[in-house]
Known about the structure:
Layout: H1 9-30, H2 34-38, H3 48-68, H4 88-91, H5 99-120, H6 124-148, E1 175-178, E2 181-185, E3 201-205, E4 208-211, H7 217-225, H8 237-246, E5 254-256, E6 262-266, E7 269-272, H9 284-293, H10 301-308, E8 329-332, E9 337-340, E10 353-359, H11 367-373, E11 411-413, H12 426-431, E12 437-441, H13 447-459, H14 474-484, H15 491-510, E13 514-518, H16 526-536, E14 541-546, H17 549-562, E15 567-572, E16 590-594, H18 604-615, E17 624-630, H19 635-641, H20 648-664, E18 673-680, E19 685-692, E20 696-700, E21 705-709, E22 714-721, H21 725-734, E23 737-744, E24 750-757
Helix pairs in contact: 1-6, 3-5, 3-6, 14-20, 15-16
Bound molecules: N,N,N-trimethyl-histidine (AVJ).
Amino acid sequence: MPAAPATSDVGEDLLEGLEQxxxxxxxxxxxxxxxxxxxxxxxxxxxxxxxxxHIAAYEDLWLVHRHxxxxxxxxxxxxxxxxxxxxxxxxxxVELLDAxxxxxxxxAVRERALxxxxxxxxxxxxxxxxxxxxQQHVETMLQTLTLARLDGxxxxxxxxxxxxxxxxxxxxLEFVPVAGxxxxxxxxxxxxxxxxxxxxHHVTVAPFRIARTPVTNASWLAFAEGGGYERREWWSDExxxxxxxxxxxxxxxxxxxxxxxxxELTACGPRDLDPDRPACHVSWFEAxxxxxxxxxxxxxxxxxxxxATWTQRSWPxxxxxxxxxxxxxxxxxxxxxxxxxxAGPDRKRLGVDGDRVQRLxxxxxxxxxxxxxxVLPARLPRAARxxxxxxxxxxxxxVPELGPSPAPADLRRRPPGDRxxxxxxxxxxxxxxxxxxTIRSYLTPGDERTLADDVLDGLTRPFKELxxxxxxxxxxxxxxxxxxxxxxxxxxxxxxxxxxxxxxxIAQATRAAEVVELGAGTAEKTRVLLGALxxxxxxxxxxxxxxxxxxxxRVADELTSDFDGLEVHGIVGDFERHLEHVPxxxxxxxxxxxxxxxxxxxxPGSRRRFLRGLARLLRPGVDHLLLGTDLVKDPRIxxxxxxxxxxxxxxxxxxxxxxxxxxxxADFDVAAFEHVAFFDREREWIEMRLRASRRMSVHxxxxxxxxxFAPREELRTEISAKFTPQRLADDLAAAGxxxxxxxxxxxxxxALSLSTPAG
Length: 759
Ligand code: AVJ
């Protein structure tokens, strides 16, 4: 097993997660009597002691036996606590450890697991698996406890949910359209998640509409009281037979009080039915009947996953068409507005169409998020355990985002008459106070050509080459996120640590009112800088530039809500071609930030040319370039950073061939290419290549091109230049920039520099 040292961020995160999760498991067990732990509460569920000992057996199997090759602590119990050998149906009949025994087993295994981790390190996949497994069982135990209806039981980490801040604002029946198209679904390779959809693959999804929040108790109550369980026409034959036989009249845990009012039986006893919370514990039959009663149907899995990961793919357009993964905006010159290339001419794209958009504070987030936030106040940092309303994790590769899409209601097209002083509709006029977000897209249909041109040019050269920018499709961006968390890949952490340590100094030195960021992405590190500028009281505007429109929109939304009064002017475009669209500086000083060491991807000549272009965005002595550069160091450290033990960088590198297969109809046998990464000591750059393992002839349909690869022939996919202080100063000087400060991390691995145009 490839193991990462336990000292890494990922390792620490996982170990901390295991510890917190265990604390929760034990707190739950401590709140239940031994008798209740040991009996079988419901024929469908295991005795709770089985869950506890099973958690231990599973951890021993994976973290100790499989990971460190140490024999099992209790080989004799392996079958009893194996979920397949001893299925739920018989768990009430076999001999099990008693409560004390199960708790001891848990403790003993944890000690062994920590020892094994000490010698064998944290494995990002196995440790994640074990951690999520335990969290899943805590959930199962809570389900069992809900069925148990124990008198006076009060789970230690459960608090009563606060009532909705905007009661009745959502019903679960507000539908939004999703354009569909060819979308990618499934769990990403190289990480663990409980998802059977793997590897990631493409499915074609027809346009559909889907409710944007879960159905509320209020809506379900209306259904039930409106004859939902009596109207035969809403039920399939099979469903009706089941309902009749089981005498189903409402969701599983709903009950009536003596006075006839409805309540919900929870693990902590009867509670008033909260009209704003999602309706739970309904069967598939009931859900289908509910849908039919509302002229709808249940979504397919592909539709659900498309919608649930919506923010990663597309953006809603105010009740009109949405773009699928592969759509790009087109330019309809006659109409003077953008529209979708594939969608019909009546389908406008809003929010990114060059119009000003504004936030509607009243309808910011689905209120459910705030309701559920109270349920499990102790946060456990696992994606699968996210609750609605939690911040959306950075393009998480494994788990579809559950719950309402975070922003559909936030971005609205300005009503047509507005600009000319026409009548505004009452809702919008009530909230259209300040316009804080502007987003403009500069991608045009011609942009697809750049891939085709780059491929035609790069693969017909004597030394084959592709520019690195085509790495970053959805999968590639996810893999890059994973790279940033690898123990071997230090630049992201090093740069962040510099920002954390030096941001207030940067704020003092620049007094910047504005940050323009090239390749902003999720702006995760940039927040640190923005925080310092906000604290210094100078910050007014943020200008993110990124090719991924959903990123720009999301960042705009998040930052305007995180930083009071911040104005965001987002630019959807390619920073190599659209710099001219960066607006002129506002009143105060500006920082142009180019982070991550991406400047290293340019060849030396174009690097200087690009820096000269950046200098033109800056006023001498007033504005600054904040540039992130990776530094020259021990080649072993450098090479490990680009050839990690877990193989993520290799997958990232090969993925560019998937991009070509999909976008240009090429037939690369992706697995037949080997990942190569080495430090070129002369040129002081990392080179990544793909090496053909055998002779190959590749057909690229969109270009009508056949490309021959000799055995072991290599295709260069990236250079990533490393800098010495001298080289940095020379490059900046050649671009007409004066280097003012170089800030390094403690280990001296990475540098952030501030420079300003020579006057
Ligand atoms: C995002 C371009 C800075 O060169 O280090 C990471 C990309 N390639 N691992 C870099 C990358 C392989 C990264 N940059």
